[in-house]
Amino acid sequence: MRTAPAPTATMTSITRNIQQRSYPLKGIMTWIQRTKNFLLEPTLTKKKCETEYLPGTTSFGMSVFNLSNAIVGSGILGLSYAMANTGIALFMILLTFVSIFSLYSIHLLLKTANEGGSLLYEQLGFKAFGLFGKLAASGSITMQNIGAMSSYLYIVKYELPLVIKELAGTDPSANEWYLNGDYLVVIVSIVLILPLSLLRNLGYLGYTSGFSLMCMVFFLIVVIYKKFQIACPLLLENDAINAPIHSVELNETIDDEMCKPKYFVFNSQTVYAVPILTFSFVCHPAVLPIYQELKGRSRRRMMNVSNVSFFAMFIMYLLAALFGYLTFYGRVEPELLHTYSKVPGAGVIFVVVRLAVLMAVTLTVPIVIFPIRSSIIQLLCSGKDFAWWRHILITLLILAFTNFLVIFVPTIRDIFGFIGASAAAMLVFILPSAFYLKLVTKESNRSVQKIGAALFLISGFVVMIGSMTLIILDWIHSASPDKH
């Protein structure tokens, strides 16, 4: 009876047969790798499902609240200023185009996520362009959301002291420590923002998002109401100090054109309009986390969430900008609430409005922290299991860095403008279209979808480069000593 050959002899025989049949070495290595992957595939698939593709648990309504809250925020306070420097007609055109473009980019992003096999923005960047794509996605998300957080905390810094003074009846010139905006930002960050930011699930913030949106709706109602209460030409506090005794004499010195709405305006501040609008509609870093936690997850369902959220925010933005502008016209400031604070006898209602806006932006910060923390973890600790110490440490570092920026930020307009022209343009225009062109291979490069994405990519570079150039030129002009 013939005995079985020894293992060594068998392997030698197989090797000899392979050499005799002239199998390419690359083919053999591919076969070995496939066999290895086949054996390991169940484990890898299980791990991937456990981390990224678990069924969502957040309802449609809560997802709408979360996405709407990610869209709204502090950007609404700068829209009246944008309208004052573009005119009503031009503003409406820009608002319509920016909202449509933002929705289109979400469509590209969701389709790319399905085709690319990842619900993480940074992983899509890595699959598309390697480490460079991952760094571009992570850097844009971090920069955009740090800018958004800074703008929210900027409002806390400058509005909360005014609210405390009104409620406590403190002398406006008082310099108590609890009236210092820098201290108040730190206190609010530790007491309110930090506990909510440490939650592991975005779905839990649906209730705070709903309350935050109600605060913004209340703000909108008061803005509309006050349009019919504040007469034009209005008398601001600075005017009252420098004005003649008789208000009639003051009215005679004010040009009648001040109270006429303008439909097309072009000046040095018009360059901030597109970045402010872009900044106001950026919610893309939060789209994939919300999509991941959506119950009954599908691309169509998430697009419905996006459509409802964007339509609601479009209406809210348009009304807030229009009635804010028609109240103050050319005298509206980059932060609308700050303009109301200069109206003598504005009433206790604006104390309540300030509180509502403060609550809204404060409750939005934890939602903004989620994509920043996720981006940092994906960049530095990709593939590692969840650890509470890392979760807490990154959250503390993000809040500390943002508080540091807020203490030294010069004006909220610069935040809206710079972030809107750079990171927001990357997230709305450039990255979704670039990832789509690279990862969606089922469509021909000559298809309508691919051509549209390519044109969208080009328009993104035009918006970013053009806006940044004009903003930098405006900064140089403003800093020039011989400016008139």
Q: Low-confidence segments, ≥5 residues, pLDDT <50?
A: 18-51, 237-255
Q: Separation of termini?
A: 108 Å
Radius of gyration: 27 Å
Helix content: over 70%
Number of domains: 1
Query: Biggest sheet: strands, sense, closure?
Result: none
CATH topology: Amino acid/polyamine transporter I
CATH superfamily: Amino acid/polyamine transporter I
Structural class from helices and strands?
Answer: mainly alpha
Question: How many DSSP helices?
Answer: 19
CATH class: Mainly Alpha
Outline the structure in words.
The protein has 484 residues and is mainly alpha-helical. The chain has one domain: Amino acid/polyamine transporter I (Up-down Bundle). It is 73% helix and 0% strand. The protein is built from 19 helices and no strands. Helix 3 packs across helix 13 and helix 11 crosses helix 17. About 11% of the residues have low confidence.
Helix-strand blueprint:
Layout: H1 7-20, H2 25-51, H3 60-71, H4 79-84, H5 88-116, H6 121-168, H7 181-197, H8 206-227, H9 237-242, H10 247-253, H11 273-281, H12 284-292, H13 299-328, H14 336-340, H15 349-380, H16 388-408, H17 412-421, H18 423-439, H19 448-479
Task: Describe the structure using short key phrases.
484 residues; Amino acid/polyamine transporter I; 19 helices; symport; transport; ion transport; membrane; cell membrane
Quickly describe the structure.
This is Sodium-coupled neutral amino acid symporter 2. Residues 57-472 form the Amino acid transporter transmembrane domain. The protein is an all-alpha fold and 484 residues long.
